[in-house]
Design the sequence.
C-alpha cells in the first residue's frame, strides 16, 4: 500500500469543475495536495499544470494529446469524470504506462429518466403547446396527443442505459422492443427483434442508446426515417453522429415523424459562451437540449466517487479495474510487503527477466499477478520488506520496460 507520506505528496489536478465528492473521496484516503480548476484550462496553460501533476481529472473539454502526455513525465493516471474517453489519446497513454479511468455507468438512471420524460412530452406535444402559450396563443385541444400506455418503445442498444429505459417504459405501460448487435437477455417483458429494420417498422417511439463506433455512425438517415411508423418520434441521447440531421429535418417537415428530442449533435460548441447552430433550430416539434442527459446532481456525484475511487485504488494498490486502456487487475491490499508495479511492452521474456532480477537479489516474492492488453503487459509483485535501492534500476533496465513503481 502507498504510505501516508506518499499519498500526501501525490499531486492531484482536477479540472472542469468535477464534483466536490471527488476531492472529498481522495482526501478521505490521505490525498491532500489537490488543485481544483472550475473550468477547462487554456491550451497554452495546460502543459505547465500537467507537468506538475501525478494524477489529472478532466471532463470532456480538456484534450490530452500524445504530445501533451509525453511531456507529462510525472503523470501516473488519468480520470475522465464522464462517460466518454475520446478526449484522451488512449493508445499514447497506454504505451506511456498511464491508465485512463472513466465512469461509463454512473449516470445511467439520469439519462433513462430524461428519455422517459421526453417520451411523454413528445407524445403529448407539450413543447409546441408551450411555445404557443409563450406567443400568447391559446390552442387547447387533444388532436395528436396520446398516452404512452399501450404504445411501443423501440430501444436501439440494450446496454446499461437502454435496459433502464426498458424497465421505466414498461412501468408506464408501454410495450418494449429492443435491438442490439449482441445477444442480451431482456428485462421484464421486453422483446428482442432481429434487425434495426424490424424495430423501426414497429415502434411508436425510437430511443437510441449506442456507443460511437464505425457501425453506429449515421445509423439513422433518410432510409431509416422512411422506415419509421408515420407519426412516430425519435429520441437521441447517445452520440451526435448517430443521426443524420438533414434527413431528420425533412422527415419532420413532411410529417413522417411527429417529433424528435435531440440531446447530442454532430458538432457541439466547445464552451458555454460559443453559439449553437443546427438545422433543427426553430422546429417547434423538436425538443433540443445541450447534451445534459446525464447532467444531474446525483449523476455528477456518482461519477465523482466512481472515478476518484478507481484513481485511489490504482495509485495506492495498483488495481486497474475500470481502466479503458490497461490490463485489468483487481488487487487487495498487502500489508507488511513492498508492492512492485512493472508496466512493459507485451513481448516474450519480460516475466522471466523480472523473476531473474528478484532471484539475483535473493528477494522472496509473496505474490504475483499478471495481465496483458494488446501491446501492454502489467505485472504486480508483492515482495518481502528489505532494501530495494538496486531493485528499481535493475527492473528499469529490462528490455521493454515502460514504467516501474514501488508501493511501500
Sequence:
Amino acid at each position: 500500500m502507498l504510505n501516508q507520506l506518499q499519498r500526501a505528496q501525490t499531486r492531484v489536478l482536477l479540472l472542469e469543475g468535477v464534483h466536490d465528492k471527488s476531492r472529498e473521496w481522495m482526501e478521505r484516503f490521505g490525498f491532500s495536495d489537490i488543485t481544483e480548476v472550475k473550468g477547462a484550462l487554456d491550451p497554452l496553460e495546460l502543459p505547465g499544470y500537467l507537468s506538475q501533476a501525478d494524477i489529472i481529472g478532466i471532463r470532456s473539454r480538456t484534450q490530452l494529446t500524445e504530445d501533451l502526455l509525453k511531456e507529462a513525465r510525472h503523470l501516473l493516471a488519468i480520470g475522465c469524470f464522464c462517460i466518454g474517453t475520446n478526449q484522451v489519446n488512449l493508445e499514447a497513454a497506454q504505451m506511456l504506462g498511464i491508465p485512463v479511468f472513466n465512469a461509463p455507468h454512473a449516470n445511467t438512471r439520469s439519462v433513462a429518466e430524461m428519455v422517459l420524460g421526453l417520451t411523454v412530452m413528445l407524445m403529448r406535444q407539450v413543447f409546441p403547446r408551450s411555445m404557443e402559450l409563450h406567443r400568447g396563443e391559446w390552442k387547447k385541444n387533444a388532436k395528436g396527443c396520446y398516452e404512452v400506455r399501450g404504445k411501443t418503445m423501440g430501444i436501439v442498444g440494450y446496454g446499461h442505459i437502454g435496459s433502464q429505459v426498458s424497465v421505466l417504459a414498461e412501468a408506464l405501460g408501454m410495450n418494449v422492443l429492443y435491438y442490439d448487435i449482441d445477444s442480451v437477455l431482456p428485462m421484464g417483458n421486453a422483446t428482442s427483434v432481429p434487425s434495426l429494420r424490424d424495430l423501426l417498422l414497429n415502434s411508436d417511439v425510437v430511443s437510441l442508446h449506442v456507443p460511437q463506433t464505425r457501425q453506429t455512425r449515421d445509423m439513422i438517415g433518410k432510409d431509416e426515417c422512411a422506415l419509421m411508423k408515420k407519426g412516430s418520434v425519435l429520441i437521441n441521447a447517445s452520440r451526435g453522429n448517430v443521426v443524420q440531421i438533414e434527413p431528420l429535418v425533412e422527415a419532420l417537415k413532411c410529417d413522417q415523424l411527429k417529433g424528435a428530442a435531440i440531446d447530442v449533435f454532430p458538432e457541439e460548441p466547445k464552451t458555454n459562451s460559443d453559439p449553437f447552430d443546427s438545422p433543427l433550430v426553430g422546429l417547434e416539434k423538436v425538443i433540443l437540449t445541450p447534451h445534459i442527459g446525464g447532467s444531474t446532481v446525483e449523476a455528477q456525484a456518482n461519477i465523482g466517487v466512481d472515478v476518484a475511487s478507481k484513481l485511489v485504488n490504482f495509485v495506492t494498490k495498483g488495481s486497474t479495474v475500470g481502466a479503458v486502456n490497461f490490463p485489468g487487475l483487481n488487487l487487495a491490499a498487502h500489508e507488511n510487503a513492498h508492492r512492485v508495479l512493472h508496466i512493459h511492452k507485451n513481448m516474450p521474456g519480460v516475466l522471466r527477466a523480472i523473476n531473474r532480477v528478484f532471484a539475483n537479489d535473493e528477494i522472496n516474492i509473496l505474490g504475483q499477478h499478471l495481465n496483458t492488453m494488446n501491446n501492454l503487459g502489467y505485472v504486480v509483485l508483492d515482495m518481502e520488506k528489505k532494501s530495494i535501492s538496486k531493485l528499481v534500476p535493475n527492473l528499469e533496465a529490462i528490455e521493454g520496460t515502460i514504467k516501474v513503481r514501488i508501493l511501500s
The chain has a mean pLDDT of 95. Residues 276 and 298 are 27 Å apart (CA to CA). The first strand starts at residue 12 and ends at 14. The chain has three domains: 1-107+296-331, 108-288, 334-408.
